User: What shape does this take?
Amino acid sequence: MASLLAFRNEHPPQQIEVEGVAWEYISFGQGDETILFLHGMTGAADIWFQQMVAFGEDYRVIWKNFLISKHSYNLHFLFTTSSQAIVIL
Assistant: This one.
């Protein structure tokens, strides 16, 4: 079983700026299909790390942090792949 500390060290969050808003995300894994992990209001990647590690062996895995701000409901997802995204809520 992977440890949370090891996961954080191996997959540090990255940032992308979209329309002046910085979005934090984690992306890794193998495969032609993508799984997008979306957490609830107070969640973080920490609640999904074991599932992300397991699915990362066969899928591209993306976790996106939701900002608690006026931009929270103005979501932009950028995919550079033509693969189908599977959304897990």
Observations:
- The longest helix spans residues 4-10.
- The longest strand covers residues 21-29.
- The beta strands are 14-18, 21-29, 34-37, 60-64, 85-88.
